[in-house]
Design brief:
This protein is an alpha/beta fold and 254 residues long. The protein is built from twelve helices and five strands.
């Protein structure tokens, strides 16, 4: 890896806007950003290391053991011709919080963007994904369940994962290597875009601004069509178990 290349990772619990952030970052010509390019490698341990982010490996050498993605996404091959001009390379990994110490030690000088989203919406999304997988497996029982969201990973799972992520991220302290992004403001407040690029010491690229504007319109459409997935009792239980005060402290870093 050339010394001029910096590492950048996007984390937060699943369903907290990590994909939206990764796609926004991809719109900047100076950033090569995976979307769980190495989710399974990260889970395995020491095999998740800087060699995975070298040009040929990252862009062209797809391995089914890399991730739950069943095929290599077109983005990586399209990235190949301009990879050398990128200042940052990295991956979005919702479970990043589980191994912060390892990542900070193994990727010297790396920067971390943490997506902070309220637990009610995260839990509702977990529930929706679990139900979606159940429907898919019912329609196609021979589907590879290892590459699908687990049916057991429902709204209850969201509570423990979200709480653990909040605690682990707070434990990082006030390091300048961490940027906390409030999901509710991501496509609502364009000053967040300016702060994000300032954190990365990059100008706001026109393509990134255009993507942000399109994302703002899309977010309004999504919110207008969102259907409730949790009942009142589930919401009450979630509120009772959420580490609300700690989350508020985390948002103050945003």
């Amino acid at each position: 890896m050339p010394l001029s290349k910096k590492f950048l990772f996007v984390g937060g619990t699943a369903r907290s806007g990590t994909s939206a952030m990764a796609t926004l970052l991809r719109a900047h010509s100076a950033i090569a950003m995976g979307r769980e390019r190495y989710a399974w490698r990260f889970r395995e341990g020491a095999s998740f290391n800087p060699s995975l982010f070298e040009k040929e490996r990252f862009c062209l050498q797809y391995d089914p053991a890399d991730s739950h993605h069943a095929r290599h996404q077109p983005y990586y091959q399209e990235l190949y011709p301009r990879f050398d001009d990128c200042l940052y390379v990295g991956d979005k990994l919702p479970s990043l919080y589980l191994r912060y110490d390892y990542v900070l030690e193994t990727f010297p000088g790396c920067r971390i963007i943490y997506m902070a989203r309220n637990l009610i919406d995260v839990a509702a999304s977990y529930q929706g994904r679990a139900q979606e997988t159940a429907r898919r497996l019912e329609a196609k029982p021979d589907a590879d369940a290892s590459r699908l969201w687990s049916t057991e990973r429902d709204w209850r799972s969201a509570i423990s994962e979200w709480n653990a992520a909040v605690d682990a991220t707070l434990a990082l302290g006030n390091t300048p290597r961490l940027f906390v992004a409030d999901y509710d403001r991501l496509f609502a407040d364009d000053t967040l875009l300016d702060k994000l690029c300032a954190f990365l010491e990059l100008p706001v690229a026109p393509a990134m601004r255009a993507h942000w504007n399109a994302g703002k319109r899309r977010r309004l459409e999504i919110e207008a069509g969102r259907k409730p997935r949790l009942d009142a009792a589930q919401v009450e239980e979630i509120r009772g178990l959420a580490r609300t005060e700690q989350f508020a402290r985390l948002l103050r870093k945003a």
